[in-house]
Design brief:
Number of helices: 10
Order of helices and strands: EEEHEHEHEHHHHHEEHH
Strand order of the largest sheet: 1-2-4-3-5-6-7-8
CATH class: Alpha Beta
CATH architecture: 3-Layer(aba) Sandwich
CATH superfamily: Alpha/Beta hydrolase fold, catalytic domain
Oligomer: single chain
Number of domains: 1
Strand content: 15-25%
CATH topology: Rossmann fold
Helix content: 25-40%
Radius of gyration: 17 Å
Distance between the termini: 27 Å
Structural class: alpha/beta
């Protein structure tokens, strides 16, 4: 059974039955990015795919804050975490959501964390806005009103396709066209895009030693990720007990390129976390 809820200013889609797993998307995305992953995980878990503040259908004040750090996103999720757990929940995060998940874990709110191509672990922080992400936002603002009719145009135009999701997938041919629609709509709706982007500038995740050893952690990279290449990440920036996994034939969104393997890693990590507190 799938249902949508609105709580604490956040909108989330609930799927499946079993121990709760919180799914956190990246910058400019929305809970729709987890659609197929939630279906796979829903056989064993209750998935909670949430829209972060200023993304998807979740609230964003007008005017909103000029800077919104991953730690701010983590704090905004705490009431929802408490609704579905005793204060600790299994967490899965993608890209900026992976950094948000690291902050959640450092706060002691995660029983496990699967961090997919997370921001915040690089050798050097971003010091200015990403040209490609800003261009992607502008493109989505133009194309959003005419999606899905423009889907085939984008799919058949390499330049447009690369701008919209070029670094996200290593094999565009395997993706359902609905992924393009979801990506464009989500980016167009992301009112908190610039504040969230600026919240990642001139800083990195620095709280690895605050993540409890009892929190099972897997950090996953795509071998073909051009946005956050695995070779540019500092393993010492992650929790010392984390498992580091690099997936072949995979770019920035592992659940698109390696959906089955990604679901397996999430399941294994989540069960490790459950068993550690049993």
């Amino acid at each position: 059974m799938t249902r949508t809820i609105r709580r604490h200013g956040l909108v989330a889609t609930i799927t499946g039955d079993g121990p709760p797993v919180l799914l956190i998307h990246g910058i400019g995305a929305a809970r729709t990015i987890w659609r197929s992953t939630a279906e796979r995980l829903g056989q064993n878990f209750t998935t909670i795919a949430v829209d972060l503040p200023g993304h998807g259908e979740s609230d964003w004040p007008n005017p909103g804050p000029e800077v919104f750090h991953p730690a701010d996103h983590a704090a905004a999720l705490k009431p929802l975490i408490d609704d579905f757990s005793n204060g600790q929940i299994a967490v899965v995060g993608s890209s900026m959501g992976g950094w948000v998940g690291l902050e959640v874990a450092a706060n002691g709110w995660a029983s496990s964390l699967t961090s997919l191509c997370p921001a915040g672990l690089e050798f050097d922080p971003w010091v200015s806005r990403s040209d490609i992400l800003v261009l992607r936002r502008r493109l989505a603002r133009v194309l959003g009103p005419v999606m899905p009719p423009a889907t085939e145009l984008v799919a058949c135009t390499p330049v447009l396709r690369d701008l919209l999701i070029g670094d996200a997938t290593a094999n565009f041919a395997t993706l359902d066209r609905s992924v393009l629609v979801d990506a464009a709509v989500a980016m167009r709706q992301a009112r908190g895009f610039y504040a969230s982007h600026d919240g990642m500038l001139n800083c990195l995740f620095t709280r690895a030693d605050e993540v409890p050893e009892s929190t099972a952690v897997s950090i996953v990279w795509g071998s073909q990720d051009s946005l956050l290449p695995p070779e540019r990440q500092r393993r010492v920036a992650g929790p010392v007990h984390a498992k580091w996994i690099v997936l072949d034939q995979c770019a920035h969104v592992p659940m698109w390129d390696q959906p089955r393997r990604t679901a397996e890693i999430i399941t294994e990590t989540t069960l490790r976390g459950i068993n550690s507190v049993a």
